[in-house]
Amino acid sequence: MTQRIHRTGKEYETKVLFDDLSVAISVEVGLFNNASDNVSVSDTNPDTDITTEPDDALDYSRQTVDIPADVTVSQEGDRWRASFDTLTFNVDDNTETVDSYFVVVNFDATDYLYMSADLDQSYDLGMIGELNLAGTGIERATGSE
Predict the structure, then answer these.
(1) Under a CB-based contact definition with an 8 Å cutoff, are residues 98 and 31 in contact?
(2) Tell me, what's the pLDDT at 99?
(3) pLDDT band at 20 (very low <50, low <70, confident <90, very high)
(4) What is the C-alpha to C-alpha distance for residues 145 and 128, in angstroms, rounded to an integer?
(5) Could you give the C-alpha distances from 81 to 4, 13, 16, in angstroms and in order?
(6) Burial 113-142 (b: 16+ CB within 10 A, else e)
(7) Residue 108 dihedral angles phi and psi, to the nearest 5°
(8) How far, in Å, CA of 14 to CA of 18, rounded?
(9) Strands, E, within the chain: which ranges?
(10) Which is nearest to 117 in space by CA: 84, 73, 70, 76?
(11) Cis omega (within 30 of 0) on the bond before 54?
């Protein structure tokens, strides 16, 4: 799985772990087509850097993950993983294609990209009524940047 921790994601980690413990402990997860957007770790704004998120005027909406209630943390060797509970996106009326997901955090009263990662394949939303994401989350190797 290709995963990108964005610059603002690292800032969020630092603030939550070492500075501002009043930061909300929930995140939003959304879908997009990274083959088109080609986001990089320097991208920070989910509303301008991600242009292929499905149309929320239809059935789609970002899903909220409450931490720690909706997350399981585990360690395998030198890898730590925070796995989200299964997320269900209603995409019955959407027609976009998605191949990635992103995580949004809010601090300083602004939404920021925390991370983004590839899905196991591309999905044509016009062919499915809902998309269930299972086993997604954040994975870090010990000592990774």
Answers:
(1) yes
(2) 97
(3) low
(4) 37
(5) 14, 15, 18
(6) bbbbbebeeebebeeeeebebeebbbbbee
(7) 55, 30
(8) 6
(9) 3-5, 26-32, 63-66, 71-76, 79-84, 87-90, 97-107, 110-124, 130-133, 137-141
(10) 84
(11) no
What's the start-to-end Cα distance of the chain, in Å?
Answer: 16
Bridge partner list, 116: 4, 102
Confidence band, pLDDT 50/70/90 cuts, at residue 16? low
Domain residue spans in the chain?
Answer: 3-141
Which pLDDT tens digit goes with each residue over 91-115? Answer: 999 999 999 999 998 878 889 998 9
